[in-house]
Amino acid sequence: MKIGVAGYTGRLGQLLVAELQADKYPSIEFVGGSSRTSRKESFNVYTSPEDLFHVSDCVIDFTTPEATLHNIYTAAKTKKKLIVGTTGLAEEHYKALAEAAKKTAIIQAANTSVGVNLLLALVEDAAKKLDRAWDIEIFEAHHKNKVDAPSGTALALGNAAKEGRGHGNFANFRTGKRVEGDIGFAVSRGGDVVGEHMVTFFGAGERLELGHKATDRALFARGAIQAAQWLHGQSTGLYTMRDVLGL
Asked: pLDDT tens-digit profile of 143-186?
């Protein structure tokens, strides 16, 4: 299987390159990465994303929403498989993903961590089983340079809770008294925090906390490569990490 890394100079892109070059995956060939400018590396660098797609079976994309939108269109055009780990996506991205998935196989994941995706399943199950009177609050913390807030993972956890409960409104920035049925979000940004997420279910006289802490960003690269290996055997469609893990 031939894997390319879009925007390899980014933080996650560099981790992906290091992971793919570590000789841990005998069935994978790392064919190179894309960059806006030509660079000298020990692997092939493509200034055109289209050229990267043409030499790859699957491209892994942890870039920016703007670059990701172009890569979605390119994946559909070339019928090459795509892993999208970019956060901060808008409605136009999700529409483009749905259209592109008619022509190729795509995984869109707000977080490629195995543990986080298990957490998503647990949150949905807990929300389904607990009485609707339980209040749901989501806390997340990331490094000081993260742009989007709440994080894509926090929003995914909110959607998991909403799916399990069958209803709920997101309250990103609350003032005043809590509204019954709201799913609230709290955000912290500082230092070099890799990622922390906690979902709390507040009941009468008790509370349930389900959480995850990431301490090494390489885990996201490993999860994305695992996703690419799974996607290699799939037909057209839009998938998630929960599909990869059979959750």
From this structure: 999 988 999 899 999 999 999 998 878 887 777 888 888 999 99
The tokens describing 127, both together, are 């929300």
Q: Are residues 171 and 235 in the same domain?
A: no
> Which of 103, 143, 146, 232 is the catalytic position?
146
Same-domain pairing of 31 and 71: yes
What's the token pair of residue 144? 């000081």
Mark whether 146 is an active-site residue.
yes
Identified catalytic residue from 142, 162, 197, 212? 142
CATH number at residue 139: 3.30.360.10
Q: Are residues 99 and 178 in the same domain?
A: no
142 belongs to the catalytic site: yes
| Contacts for 197 with CB less than 8 Å, ≥ 6 apart | 116, 119, 138, 139, 140, 151, 153, 154, 157, 211, 212, 213
